[in-house]
C-alpha cells in the first residue's frame, strides 16, 4: 500500500499538506526561523505521529480486552541533536493510565504489543533513536 500526500507552499515558511484521511494540516516555522507559527513544526509532528500510532494500537487493545480506563495520555520528551541535520537521538515515551479499576498487567501488555509488534512509526524511530518506554498507573 502506498500513501500519497501533497505539500504545497503557501508563501513565507508556510505549507499545507494533504492527508489520506481528507483532513489537511498546516506546517510553518517559528518566528525565529522566518515563519509565523501558523502550523505544526515538522519534527514535533513526527512525535505526534509516534504517539498517535501507538495510542491507536493501545486504544484498540483497551476496547478488545474490555479494560476500564478513565483517562489515557502519552507524553513524549525527545532530545534533538545539536549538529545539522538535527534529529531525535533519544526519545522518552510515557504512557499514563488513570482509573479506579486499572488492570495494570493487561494495560502493560497492550503497551508492549504496540511497542514491540504493531506500531510501524515506533519501528521507524527505532532506526535512529534510543527509545525509553515507561508505563504509569494513576489509581483514583
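^ Assign residues to that structure.
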Amino acid at each position: 500500500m502506498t500513501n500519497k500526500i501533497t505539500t504545497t507552499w503557501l508563501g513565507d515558511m508556510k505549507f499545507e499538506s494533504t492527508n489520506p484521511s481528507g483532513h489537511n494540516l498546516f506546517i510553518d516555522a517559528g518566528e525565529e526561523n522566518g515563519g509565523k507559527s501558523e502550523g505544526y513544526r515538522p519534527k514535533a509532528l513526527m512525535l505526534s505521529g509516534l504517539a498517535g500510532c501507538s495510542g491507536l494500537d493501545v486504544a484498540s487493545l483497551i476496547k478488545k480486552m474490555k479494560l476500564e480506563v478513565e483517562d489515557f495520555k502519552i507524553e513524549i520528551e525527545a532530545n534533538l541533536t545539536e549538529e545539522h541535520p538535527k534529529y531525535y537521538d533519544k526519545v522518552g515515551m510515557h504512557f499514563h493510565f488513570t482509573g479506579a479499576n486499572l488492570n495494570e498487567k493487561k494495560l502493560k501488555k497492550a503497551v508492549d504489543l504496540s511497542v514491540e509488534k504493531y506500531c510501524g512509526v515506533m519501528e521507524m524511530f527505532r532506526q535512529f533513536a534510543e527509545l525509553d518506554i515507561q508505563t504509569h498507573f494513576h489509581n483514583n
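The helical segments are 42-64, 104-118, 120-126.
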